[in-house]
């Protein structure tokens, strides 16, 4: 386990150095290693299964449990504690989990684990006793290290198989791309059961000797306070979090002046959020692109290369192909499906051979299902999600284009556009809106705003105002929930 042992070597170099700060404590390097050793012994006593569940809040407990599982030679299966009961049961059954590393408050929150899954509580570990010294079990590079289940926005969660090589490759790619090192302090609040939070917020800082500062709940004012206290060099968040941060009352202009990077991922970054955060704090958000299936990061637009709509150039070792429906390259600057090769691309979907085969084309390119284009400098821009594409009177329309216009309207905080079936046009746009606090909805004004900036067929047929968008645990809008709540809507949108 190259990644695990790289982290353990870093911990051994400076055992008294604080490597993690969370809501409960500061973790010196020795304590993280010590706890991981106890977790490994507890797992070996509890189960012989190849895979072990991990259900923990964003904290130092998570990397300690992960390292412990790897020390015991097991595959980690992070469990999304916001899963429905049905999804949690499906994941545990699909992965054949009979043991889960957790803490009491998590069990209270989820109302327990599925039948047949034993809770291994970290607060019950004998951490005051000397553990048996150990490292991560040596094994093959293609061995399954992590089984990450998708959040299920488009159906039942699927297990993404990430190998030791996949994880180690992506940590090194991110490290080298942004020159991360022991001088860095990484601040974030992302769930560690998500690929972005797992790799960029958790494993990468530990592997390079940086300090990681976590908080389990996103409270904008607390993030500002943590930034003042710890002076982070990197902030890892998603667009909705940056949108909330720019609205913190009385936040000083220099609140994030220590940042080398404000990293955004997980969903497209609206220009209104990017510009608003820059206006508030003088920091330009660096947008990246990735998928659970790619460990996750494949590109990242560094601040000195900033250009609007670019998610950057491919990381070292990553290749992009922009392909038409037949898998042939399209001319530079034209839209096509983004396909990817690289050492960080998944092994496949667990227990799903048909879906695994369909995820790759005949030449071995991973099919992302995202639509994008490359410019002359190799910068990638995402133009939409192929499955979300609307066909309006024979024209292909991506919701993102309409949403970008709506998100700039002064009263609108965020929008989500999906397809409404129409007898004459095939589909027409339906826009769900979340308004800024204190704003009122003026349909005439919003419609006029759209008509000035969009061709007529792209102007939403209907607007619906929501108190809040339905989101998955990483903050991504759940379009399927919008579709399911409204009869006559195209469920594939």
- Spans of at least 5 consecutive residues whose pLDDT stays below 50 are 488-493
Whole-Å distance between the termini? 40 Å
Proportion in β-strands: 15-25%
What's the CATH superfamily of the largest domain, by name? ANL, N-terminal domain
Which whole number gives the mean pLDDT? Answer: 92
- State the CATH architecture of the largest domain: 3-Layer(aba) Sandwich
Number of strands: 25
How many DSSP helices? 14
Radius of gyration: 23 Å
CATH topology of the largest domain: Rossmann fold
Would you state the CATH class of the largest domain?
Alpha Beta
- Can you tell me the number of structural domains? 2
Helix content class: 25-40%
The general outline is globular
| Class per helix and strand makeup | alpha/beta
Biggest beta-sheet profile? 9 strands, mixed
3D structure, described in words:
The chain is built from 14 helices and 25 strands. The relative contact order is 0.09. The chain is globular, with a radius of gyration of 23 Å. The protein is 30% helix and 25% strand. The chain has helices at residues 2-13, 29-46, 61-71, 85-94, 104-110, 164-178, 195-208, 220-230, 239-245, 271-281, 353-358, 399-406, 443-453, 479-484, and strands spanning 18-21, 26-28, 51-55, 75-78, 99-102, 118-121, 144-149, 159-163, 185-188, 211-214, 234-237, 261-264, 285-290, 297-300, 313-314, 319-323, 336-341, 348-349, 366-374, 380-385, 390-392, 395-397, 412-422, 426-435, 462-466. It folds into 2 domains: 1-382, Rossmann fold (3-Layer(aba) Sandwich); 389-484, 2-Layer Sandwich (GMP Synthetase, Chain A, domain 3), CATH 3.30.300. The model is unreliable at 488-493 (pLDDT under 50). α7 links the parallel β9 and β10. The chain has a 9-stranded mixed sheet with strand order 2-1-10-9-11-12-13-14-15, sandwiched between helices. The chain is α/β, with parallel strands linked by helices and 493 residues long.
